[in-house]
Amino acid sequence: MLDEGGRPVVGNCAAQRLDAQGLSGSISVIDQTYHYVYTDVMPEDCGEPAPRRRTALYLRTSRDLGAARVWSAPRTLMAALPPGTMVRAAKARGMDRWVISYSCRRPANAPGGPVPDICVQYSADLTLDALAALKLFSEPVSAQRSPAYLGLRSGGDGSGRFSRVAHYWMTDRYGNLDVPDALSAKSGFLTWLDRLAPRRDGSADSTLYGRPVYWGTWTARPVSPR
What we know:
It is a single chain. By secondary structure, the protein is mainly β. Helices cover about 0% and strands about 30% of the residues. A four-stranded antiparallel beta sheet has the order 1-2-3-4. The protein has a three-stranded antiparallel beta sheet with strand order 5-6-7, with no helix packed on it. It is globular. About 30% of the residues are buried.
């Protein structure tokens, strides 16, 4: 695929074998425009070892996926995120707001301590500036801690050996949040896997496929200003 400037839509950094950073993210259709929000390595970190390459959150848009030059040039929404941060964005269910889910850790004083979790935040409105204004992590950012954690109880443990990663959520045909009919009172339906747990057959041949998968929901409601 090419963007509007004729440049291929590829990662910022050349890589060898499994060091490649995929352009992981999500596509959400709002006002007849496709919004592709994804993470990629920051170009200035391409020379660093893979575990030290910070990521940034980018946006590309398109109004016609059949066009010869499909996507706009990338716009940076957030920079200097911790290596390996996974972010998804979509229109919130029943609200004119963005909602994002991302890999994080609980604060040190949270139940279980700073263990891996998944965080969810809502923007103030549906503008891109509101999306970019969201603060994902508390300082220091490298610790990946956030008070917006869901407090997942399945997958992972307090030792840090297991994890809660590769999250995804249920969407409608436009890539925006939806839930099963039986869970209509909920705001979102999320899935994740325990990447470091043993596979079903007890082996550890893969770091992703065959791992235990879990699901959960959350509910968003308005609160009075303090």
